[in-house]
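Dear colleague,

As promised, here are the two records you asked about, laid out in our usual form so they can be pasted straight into your sheet.

NAME FIELD: protein one
SEQUENCE, THEN STRUCTURE:
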Amino acid sequence: MNSASVEPFSDVDKLHIDLKHSVEAMTDWQPAEGETSARHVLERIESVILGIVTSLSKDEAPVLLLPNRSSWTNVSFDSSVGLQMTSESSVTSVRCDCASSVTKFAQLLKILSVIYKLVQSDSFATKRDIFYNNTRLFGSQTSVDTIVDDISCLLKVPRRALHVLATSKGFISGDLCYMESDGTRISCSSSQAVAVSSNISGIRNIVSSAQFVLIVEKDATFQRLLDDDFCAKLSPCIMITGKGVPDLNSRLMVRKLWDTLHIPIFALVDADPHGIEIMSIYKYGSVAMSFEAHSLTVPSVMWLGLLPSDLQRLRVPQDVLLPLTKTDECKLASLLKRPYLSSQPQWKREMELMQQTQVKAEIQSLSAIAPDFLTNIYLPNKLRYKGWI
């Protein structure tokens, strides 16, 4: 048996206790699980429709005002929440008498009617179902995806309250059992990963003795850790991957685990600007979904690796390091301007080091040191010697 499986990770245990105490000390802390009533959602939709009917009765062209979900000026930063939309955000007008927005106006009304029926009947549909029920109107799946988020933001209700589900692309594995909304019992402890649920809010009866959660950026790395039996070799843990930029369900699942277990959550991403941004989305959220920050972000997420400083410390062979591209440089410059960097000086130093060295590296580059380096040496030592920031 690997020595890592029996030697306690005292710093991880201490971090677990500290996190638990910090949550208990937050008297205003509330889990993200609070449900929005069906009646509340229906009333919000009825209010929107009433506004349209009122405009028509006055012989005025109806206009829908959508908060602008793509502007940094509409976002503020709170270290305990992340990126959240301000109450006085700028809006985008969607008019029915304007050629450039009449199609979107029709799409919004159509999806509002679909949502109303779903909520009223307590039934669910996927975004894919909605698209294929009227492909000519929507044109693309992306249009449906965007409009569902716009409606969630417009109505000021969590997207899960709209009864519209998204197909999950993430996977999860480790010391975790739970029950799906339909009563199906799910065990994640087998050697095969389990697809992240498409209805996170319906999950209940979570049972786990895991000491930490490991977010893995890439599916290839996740599969490698599975093949190496990482969860069994190390202390009980849970691994999850969103297979790159995380989908909503992967983010909701990480938040669900945090709300339920209050155990340390670490991120394992490539030492490149793209990996850092992915980790930042889990931790602090994104501009596009800032209106739902309170139920999506997990500010306790910590950067375990791959750190730019690790590349020098471990003397990763030069031939597996990659030069930063112009796109990388622009992304890195953008990240260094993010408001959350002020509360993460160690992150900033790591990014500045990347900027100085002008190199990046994938997690897989550690195999150039030794084939089993990631599983048997790098991660155990990181966890044993408090190698996170």
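NAME FIELD: protein two
SEQUENCE, THEN STRUCTURE:
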Amino acid sequence: MLDDISPSPHIEYDRLLGGLLIDGFDEKSCRSRYQFARYHTSPSIPSPYLIERLRKQELLQKKCGPGTKAYNEASKKLRSGQSTNTTDCNYLLLTIHAGLGNRMLEITSVFLYALLTNRILLVDRYMEIGDLFCEPFPGTSWLVPSDFPLNYGDFTQRSPESYGNMLQNKVAAGNTDLSLAGTRPHYVFLYLDGDNDFHDRLFFCEDDQRFLQGVQWLIIRTDMYFVPSLFLIPAFQDELGRLFPEKDTVFHHLARYLFHPSNDIWYTVTKYYRFYLAKAEKRVGIQIRIYEKKGILQRNGPFPHILNQIFSCAQNEKLLPEIGMAEGAAETQNKAQTQNNRTIAVLTTSLSSWYSDQIQKKYDEHATVDGTTVEVHQPSHEEYQRSKNKKHNKKALAEIYLLSMTDELITSGFSTFGYAAQGLAGLKPWIMFRSESHVVPDPPCDRAMSIEPCFHNAPFYDCKAKRNTDLGKVVPYVRHCEDVSWGLKIVNQTQL
């Protein structure tokens, strides 16, 4: 398996991902950084302006990151409670607590916000980020130092440091318009989890952004992909348009820039890919997430209606071949295969192995109408999600990357795990909708409008008009999600 861990000079591929990456990193310490392109070809090219801004951000991270004189001075002032004006080194610290898919979405969102506001991104070192991913920035670390002066993990929505709480309690003089005035605090805690309230969500208003611009330290907690709402802030729109002329490529480009699995995870990915998927003519990924609310033992199945939905989607959309009705059709199948040597490799990811077993059983017992061989593979079946278990998260990350290496993708609606895989791949998936009363939806799935994730808990407040409104109808490139009717996602459209 030497070639799994050593780039081959005989394979041509865009190792720098169209300029997103730069040379200079130690390849042996992070093999995935320059090898990912060998297993996946991007359908999109990053803009020259995005590349330029990434290079500037790298310089900023190196100038102001942990261990530098600028960071030490800023940290000292933070420890003493000394108020300070913003400088060339302003910080955005992300606390992390959610599952792996959510983590990837929230880090991407916060990094984009750091780009837009010229802040240094630091991420929580206590949630295995260093075990899962390589450092993305050259010559510095994005992990919060262990001696950081604030116990940010203790901050809550009702903490005095919370921006929403500051607004609600009108802690600054002259605050008559739900915005703060007067002396700015030396740090602010932004609570943007899914259960945030009206005052927390004023973060997405332009006036509030002007206030926050003057705060040196922002500490943010979120479990959401809030990028669509950044596109609705007028002050950011021109910059976002230059960064992403193809608007629905935000996660695709930034995730491939930021996330590089550690060597042990990458070895698992490449070994599995080469052993089970590489030789197939076509690779189909099926990401299965169950949302049933029954007892804990039944939560992930087996549910026959979910299996029927998978088959209906895959065969209606011609992703998998149709099968004959007769059982024990081995002789007919062998005859057909003499005329068709085509193989489709199906990669399923699920907490339960029952679905992949049943799909394989169906194709073992029934001949396909065109003689295509279908081989079904599932790397793991953990039964229950354990988002705080390191081994579990490493398996999950390996599966996200394996899904991103398929040619076609079926995902479960509402799943951030699926969003991460489709974003890395740059694929518009077929989204399976949630069933009601154990009945297969009609249609069982639909093609996504874009490769972007959905912002599940998007605000619906028009900051300028100061009233609630439908923010999915304000600009043509921010629409409601297919799988979450109240959510928002970015699409590459120019007309409402």
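A couple of things worth noting about protein two: The longest strand covers residues 343-349. The two ends are 52 Å apart (CA to CA).

Best,
R.
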